[in-house]
Amino acid sequence: MINQVHSEQLHTSSIIVSHRPLFFLMLLLSYVLYLVIGAFVFSTLEQPYEEQLRSKEEELWNEFLKYHPCLSEEVLDDFLQKLLLVKSFGVSVLRNSSGVKWGFVSSLFFSGTTLATIGYGNPVPISQSGKIFCLFYSIIGIPFTLSLLSIGAQNLLFLLRDKPIHVLLLRFNFARNKLEWIHAGVLISLLLLLSFFIPAIVFNCVEENWGYIDALYFCFISLSTVGLGDYVPGEKSGQRMSALYKLLVLCYLVVGLMAVFLVVEILKSLFKCNQFFNLFLFGCDENQRAEEMEQDPPCDAGLPCASKHDETTRRRLLHSTSPTERSFGTINPCIS
Question: Which of 2, 83, 90, 209 is 20 to 30 A from 281 (CA-CA)?
Answer without folding.
Answer: 2
